[in-house]
Design goal:
The chain is mainly beta and 274 residues long. It folds into 2 domains: 89 residues, Immunoglobulin-like, CATH 2.60.40; 149 residues, Cupredoxins -  blue copper proteins (Immunoglobulin-like). The chain contains 2 helices and 19 strands. The protein has a 5-stranded mixed β-sheet with strand order 12-11-10-14-17, with no helix packed on it. The structure holds copper (II) ion (CU). The site of copper (II) ion has 6 residues, from loops.
């Protein structure tokens, strides 16, 4: 599963609609072909709250075809829009009960996840990591082991000088390479481990909805300081992420990437990132 990049797509439709045509233009083997490949929700535009529709709330024609026609029992209410997430990429365990007719995802162990919204390039070097964010003005920074006296004993040899910052609930593509010898970008909490090889690009991905900071380490013996190149990923809200991106842009002499005039004031900018 790690080697297959998530490819599900999200489509949004206005309030008032009852019938929508949804593209199903994946490769044939990846098409939406049953209700476990679809997730429909009604999103309140004011609050952002999502209410997931049950399979009995809509009817689908054209499973497996290039276009699906979805008919809702009730029109999308005013002040809301319809979000359709469709595709075969998932995270979580696929319950055995699915084979007995239970809808995948019903017990929250497995769910559809969208194609990556962010690509981060991680370059291993002796001894640390450089992270580039090509989608957001192409800033980059180095992440080195944090000085011992600055970290708690729990984070000894895990904390870094700069966290990788990503938004929760979005799929993140990680592209790895090496600047000198082979390293490996490993993040156990995400089930992610991939070699970072000079002259080659590898790619993998992760997805988490849980905000917090996660730690990993280089996992390919790369020289005398191999044990001193930790990896830290800070998962934040979308608003915090955008504020952080703008802060990075500023540090790199770039224009702000996101127009977050309101959000910047409201969002908590992670204090330990610079
Ligand atoms: Cu190493």
């Amino acid at each position: 599963m790690e080697d297959k990049m998530p490819d599900a797509q999200t489509y949004e439709y206005e309030s008032g609609v009852t019938k929508v045509a949804v593209p199903n233009d994946f490769a044939k083997s990846r098409r939406i072909s049953n209700d476990s490949h679809l997730e429909l929700s009604i999103v309140d535009q004011a609050t952002g709250d999502e209410m997931t529709l049950g399979v009995d709330d809509f009817d689908v024609q054209g499973y497996g075809d290039e276009e699906l026609i979805i008919t809702l029992n009730e029109a999308v209410p005013a002040g809301s829009h319809l979000k359709v997430l469709g595709g075969r990429s998932r995270v979580g365990r696929r319950p055995l009960l699915h084979k007995l007719g239970m809808r995948v995802g019903e017990d929250n162990t497995s769910k559809i996840i969208p194609a990556p919204s962010i690509t981060i390039k991680a370059t291993g070097f002796q001894w640390g990591w450089t992270y580039s964010y090509p989608d957001f003005g192409d800033f980059e920074f180095d992440s080195l082991i944090a000085p011992k006296e600055t970290v708690s004993s729990e984070l000894f040899r895990l904390a870094t000088t700069n966290d990788v910052v990503v938004p929760a609930g979005e799929t993140v593509r990680i592209v790895t390479t090496g600047r000198d010898v082979i390293h490996a970008w490993a993040m156990p909490a995400f089930g992610t481990k991939i070699d970072a090889v000079p002259g080659r690009l590898n790619e993998t991905w992760f997805y988490t909805e849980n905000e917090g900071t996660y730690y990993g380490q280089c996992s390919e013996i790369c020289g005398i300081d191999h044990a001193f190149m930790p990896i830290s990923v800070k998962v934040v809200s979308r608003e915090e992420f955008e504020a952080w991106v703008n802060e990075q842009a500023d540090l790199n002499g770039l224009e702000p990437f996101f127009d977050t005039t309101d959000q910047l004031a409201a969002a908590e900018v992670p204090a330990d990132v610079n």
